[in-house]
Amino acid sequence: MSKFKASMVATVTMVAAAGLASGAHATDGYFAHGIGAKAKGAGGTEIAHAQDSLAIAANPASAVDLGNRLDAGLEVFSPDRSAVIHGNGMAADARYDGNDSKLFAVPEFGLVRQINGRSAWGVAVYGNGGMNTDYAVNPFGRFGATRSAGVNLEQLFISPTYAYRLTERQSVGVSLDILVQAFYAKGLSPFASASQDPANFSNRSKDTVLGSGVRIGYLAHITDKLAFGASWKSRTKAGDFKKYSGLFAEGGSFDSPSTYGVGLSYQATAPLNLAFDVRKINYSEVKSVGNPLSQLFLGAPFGSDNGPGFGWRDVTTYKVGANYAISPRLTVRGGYSHSDQPIAASETFLNILAPATVQDQYTTGATWALTSDLELTGYVLVAPKKTVKGAGSIPASFGGGEADISLAETAVGVSVGWRH
């Protein structure tokens, strides 16, 4: 089998595998903090510092700098989700554990090939994010819910990419973002009476939809040591979740929001590279994510055109990373990422289902060159527990009081890279 055919077989295989991955990957809100094992080990920095083929998912223009390579990785992700309801008139104060599902496998795959000295193509397959909660004891049982509660959102992106070198030091690139998105919710029956379509609100099994958008990137090597990158991702329009048309605003709409960011990469010494990224995620532009619960009390029921959502705010993330080549065969790295808090204290009640409260992530990793063509990369991510305490969070019609929500995360990953 030719190298080209082998690469394409690997692509199809990884697409199928990634399509089965569970979606509990939430560090920048419900977006992954980075894409690709090397970037993840360096705090998620990659807009101006491409180290493997998955970097094209952050900046398509980097494809012309990567040579011919293939990367396949797997992350094992463990979130720790919990909620406390207190001062509520319906029942006594209680803490709820959302970890009935504890471990999640998240595969990713990238391929880049040079067309000639000025252009390249590639494809990245990755989970851009997701959210999952699984409460064996239903927090909404005090309002009449039965059995367990939780949600699961999975987002798989397949991004074919083309890049072109404008000059010796500047390149541009574009990706088509193809989204495969799945969702289910369970145990939310007490809220269905506040929906315009209560039959399609909860316990409707998994629903899967497709979507598409574009990403544009620019990369400039300003000097031999300093590089600048910029990237913009459009809002990814997705089909409506018909099984949950009574839960999400606009009859089940749940698009992926637009993002944009810039990055710097500085080769401080021959072995040491420093990188810095800033990214903005526009959660509020998607009504199912950004609309506050208070829409319900302004006459907009769940599922309506301007119905309630999770009340998430737009966030800006700041990432810094360092890569140090100890020897030609061994590179070590580390990084830190900080995100704004997407969840306001007034919006914690519904976000018992999606407690994406984490703001700080610490990462470390290393790459070992097994041969001149083959390398192995590993990384670890730790996100300390962050709690958002409710303030005016539970409506009086549900007995008042407050919901406090918490999340902590740990992830380990490994990737194999092949330069060919």
Automatic annotation (TrEMBL):
The keyword Ligase does not apply. GO terms for molecular function: long-chain fatty acid transporting porin activity. It is found in: Cell outer membrane. Pfam families: Toluene_X. Residues 1-26 form the signal peptide. One of its GO terms (cellular component) is cell outer membrane. PANTHER family: OUTER MEMBRANE PROTEIN NMB0088-RELATED (PTHR35093:SF8). This is Long-chain fatty acid transporter. The lineage of its organism: Bacteria, Pseudomonadati, Pseudomonadota, Alphaproteobacteria, Caulobacterales.
